[in-house]
Design goal:
The complex is a heterodimer of chains A (302) and B (226).
Chain A lengths: L1 H16 L1 H38 L2 E5 L5 H12 L4 E7 L1 H11 L4 H10 L7 E6 L5 H8 L2 H4 L2 E6 L3 H42 L2 H10 L3 H38 L9 H7 L1 H27 L3
Antiparallel strand pairs in A: 1-3, 1-4, 2-3
Chain B lengths: L1 E9 L5 E10 L4 E5 L6 H8 L7 E6 L2 E2 L8 H7 E5 L10 H10 L5 H14 L15 H13 L5 E5 L7 H16 L3 E5 L3 H7 L2 E6 L2 E6 L7
Parallel strand pairs in B: 3-8, 3-9, 6-7, 7-8
Antiparallel strand pairs in B: 1-2, 1-4, 4-5, 9-10
Classes of the chains: A alpha+beta (302), B alpha/beta (226).
């Protein structure tokens, strides 16, 4: 217990008396963590943007004006059973007509044509949203059966199949690139942190040698560096959290212009705070400890 | 109490640093070990503190064969032998008091014991008024006295001094030798590795002469004859 207390005391003594090196170590760790968080923010925004785009894409089924309610209900139930389907919304004939009139309210010719027809020419419309744009093909295939042929006048994408495929390809590519960048960043972060800690320890190799000659055990020498790793980790993650939240508070109002009101980066971080910063604390701690141990192996050979 | 039997040390480059060295040191002796550069003095110091291992032979300190100790026992050995180096080897970011205390802290001594012993030892070497100074704030002679104080705190039976006056002027050299003589008077064995002719001739103690890794002369009241 006494030795542990002394190890902690030596660690703080070393950090304070070598304040320049301590500051640089924390500074580099903070830079690395900020880079990782920037990547996380970009990844989150990308995913949200992709989700928004996918949300705009839906399928409309235009039923014949004489399609019966029971048949339409049966089709609705059938489609709802697909696991790929998120929502199914049904617009009645009257709702379709109102919507049509509203879209063409400034077009007197359309209004005149409707008056001449007298009856509502429209059938009900079913709007289907699926999880992925590519799922629409499955729905279309499922509906392409003889018993529905007389009921369904037309099917369409809001957008077309090519656009859907392009979106799918782009989102897949974005996710792959994002993953690749994350891995690359993790490797760069590891190498930089490893070298930073190694340099810090190598500058103290003479001191380590003296401590060995005076009779300090390997753990008595190693201990303060491990404590320093822990302290540097806590300080760097703490500073990063503060800077990240300041950045998010600044960024969120700008993002509100583009993204829906329900989305904010601050909320995202709040709801994932343990995972995001817990992972970063553990990663930095492991990296700094591993770097200390590897850097000191040579110095501690008898 | 120190026995070196047939010690041979060959480095990986093929250099034979020590060759069949035999030496017996009685408790309380003050021995000067002299030799030109490359004679094996530094290697002998390293073997005494187990920083190197001999290729052949045995080194016994007390009842302990230090050529067979495990790496985890080396710190214990070094706590029992006081070592003084030419370049002082003080921890630059610790004060005088902390440098000397460190030698006791590594051994797990209590804070109360450290606070009692360290001031006493600093007084012996005349540095009790500079206990809160850092090494860079001291002269060469003062730094060497701190190193001596650090080597004394464990009350070792042996002190190995490797060219302790190599970087000092004549006055400081004289002071350091006087301190070593005083330490020897209370029963501590001193092994002084040096190539300072005047020190050796003035001491008139046992002189071991090394040449090309071999012990070529052992004089009871020797002189520097190289």
């Amino acid at each position: 217990m006494l030795s542990l207390w002394r190890i902690i005391k030596f660690a703080f003594q070393d950090m304070i008396r070598n304040i320049g090196l301590s500051f640089m170590t924390v500074f580099i760790l903070v830079l690395m963590l900020l880079s990782v968080n920037v990547l996380l923010v970009v990844d989150t925004l990308t995913k949200e943007a992709v989700r928004m785009v996918k949300d705009q894409v839906n399928v409309s089924l235009y039923f014949a004006p004489d399609a019966g309610d029971k048949d339409i209900a049966a089709i609705s139930q059938y489609i709802n059973e697909f696991p790929e389907v998120v929502t199914v919304a049904l617009l009645s004939r009257d709702e379709v007509l109102s919507s049509f009139k509203e879209r063409h309210q400034n077009n007197s010719e359309v209004e005149q044509a409707l008056d001449e027809l007298g009856n509502n020419p429209f059938g009900p419309t079913m709007i289907i949203k699926t999880k992925e744009p590519g799922d629409y093909k499955k729905i279309f295939t499922a509906l392409d059966v003889p018993e529905y042929a007389s009921l369904i006048e037309a099917k369409s994408f809001d957008g077309n199949e090519d656009a859907i495929n392009r979106i799918q390809n782009i989102t897949n590519r974005i996710e792959r690139v994002g993953f690749g960048l994350s891995v690359l960043f993790a490797i760069i972060a590891f190498l930089i942190i490893f070298n930073t800690v190694r340099v810090a320890i190598n500058t103290q190799r003479i001191e380590i040698g003296i401590k060995r000659l005076v009779g300090a055990s390997n753990w008595f020498i190693r201990g303060p560096y491990l404590v320093e790793s822990l302290v540097f980790t806590i300080i760097s993650v703490g500073v990063t959290i503060i800077l990240v939240y300041i950045g998010l508070r600044w960024l969120d109002p700008y993002l509100a212009v583009v993204f829906p009101a329900s989305f904010s980066l601050t909320n995202f971080y709040n709801s994932h705070i343990l995972y995001v910063f817990g992972t970063q604390i553990l990663s930095v701690l492991l990296l700094t400890i591993l770097s200390s141990v590897l850097a000191m192996r040579r110095q501690l050979k008898v | 109490m120190i026995k070196l039997q047939n010690i041979t040390k060959i480095y990986s480059t093929g250099t034979i640093a020590l060759r069949n060295l035999n030496l017996h040191v009685k408790p309380g002796e003050f021995i000067s070990i002299i030799g030109q550069s490359g004679s094996g003095k530094t290697t002998l110091v390293k073997l005494m503190i187990a920083e190197e291992r001999p290729n052949k032979g045995q080194i016994e300190i007390g009842e302990w064969d230090i050529t067979k100790i495990g790496s985890n026992e080396v710190p214990f050995l070094r706590r029992q032998i006081g070592v003084i180096f030419q370049d002082y080897k003080l921890l630059p970011r610790k004060t005088v008091m902390e440098n000397v205390s460190f030698a006791l802290e590594v051994a797990g001594e209590s804070s109360a014991h450290i606070q009692k012993v360290v001031p006493q030892v600093l007084e012996i070497v005349g540095l009790h008024k500079k206990s809160s100074h850092y090494p860079m704030q001291l002269s060469g002679g003062e730094q060497q006295r701190v190193a001596i104080a650090r080597s004394l705190v464990h009350r070792p039976k042996i002190i190995v001094a490797d060219e302790p006056t190599g970087n000092l002027d004549a006055i400081n050299t004289e002071e350091i030798i006087e301190i070593l003589k005083k330490i020897n008077e209370v029963g501590t064995t001193i092994l002084l590795f040096t190539h300072n002719r005047e020190i050796v001739n003035r001491l008139r103690r046992r002189v071991i002469t090394l040449h090309n890794g071999e012990l070529i002369m052992d004089q009871a009241e020797g002189k520097y004859v190289l």
